[in-house]
Amino acid sequence: MYKPGVSNITNIPKALAIQVEQVTELPDALQQIGLQGSRPTLVIVGGASGLTQEYFTTLQRLFEEKIAPLAEKFQAYVVDGGTDAGVMQLMGKARLNSGGTFPLIGVAAIGTVILPESENTFADAAPLEPNHTHFVFVPGNNWGDESPWIANVATSLADGAPSVTVLINGGGITLTDASNTMRVNRPLIVVAGSGRTADRIVAALQGEVADEQVTQIAQFEKLTAVKLENDFHSIEKAIAQKLSSN
Fold first, then answer.
1. Does 3 map to a domain?
2. Where is each LSDAT prokaryote domain found (predicted)?
């Protein structure tokens, strides 16, 4: 069962939100909050609380100069983890600062986020990013419980349209996000030079010894590695190609 989308599920007045329990509920639930019609879909995964200032300023430019404008150009659905940290915060602020109109959907495990009148006792519960337009709350009380749902929500939203996951920086949960991207056979762009998990995957792709999960991801046939260059041209080109492919 799902609960009808209402704005007061969150403390973000303009955002629509819904809570689901089963994957089979997603198509109807997404329609309940106004997300209907197939369109290109961009999934953002990567660094959250572990994203250091070393990378933050450069990535802020990437999101504001390239990723948000691309999402606007394609009027894509953009899907991420929805909390006010790391790449999710960067995505939300980039949409705001660029005047974007594309839907920005946060998918979060209900027990890991701070909600009005919530009795959440999770010590690391996080606030929601305030510039997201929609939230889908899914079962779970631990970070990473949302990972398979992010992949499933994006698949339901795209509904046959082109989609791509962009992986930037990241920790252990980002590996799970990448594995779930592989599960649904979605193309994966890994941004080399963005640090941590992204660079581990690229190193394995280049032949360095890595653990089993990283090695499997590096061998994914739909993986593309692009370098974090100053003008971001390679990243922009790779994302645009995936969002416009059939």
1. no
2. 39-230
Residue of 20, 13, 168 whose CA lies nearest to 80:
168
Beta bridge partners of 135: 17, 106
Provide the pLDDT confidence category of residue 5 given band limits of 50, 70 and 90.
Answer: low
How far is residue 210's CA from residue 194's CA, in Å, rounded to a whole number?
18
> How many other C-beta atoms lie within 10 A of the C-beta of residue 159?
15
pLDDT digits (tens, 9 = 90+) for 62-85: 999 999 999 999 999 999 999 999
Q: Which residue has the higher pLDDT, 117 or 182?
A: 182
How many domains is the chain partitioned into structurally?
1
Tell me how far CA of residue 30 lies from CA of 36, 54, 134, 152, 206, in angstroms.
7, 37, 9, 12, 40
Domain of residue 38: give its range. 14-244
CA-CA distance, 138 to 160, in Å (whole number)?
23
pLDDT recorded at residue 1: 42
Name the residue among 118, 125, 121, 91 with its Cα closest to residue 19. 118
- Cα separation, 190 vs 228, in Å, equals 10
The predicted model gives 136-154 an average pLDDT of 96
Taking the model in full, what pTM does it have?
0.95
Is 98 exposed, middle or buried, given 0-12, 13-18 or 19+ CB atoms closer than 10 A?
middle
Residue 4 lies in a domain: no
On whether residue 57 sits in a domain, the answer given is yes
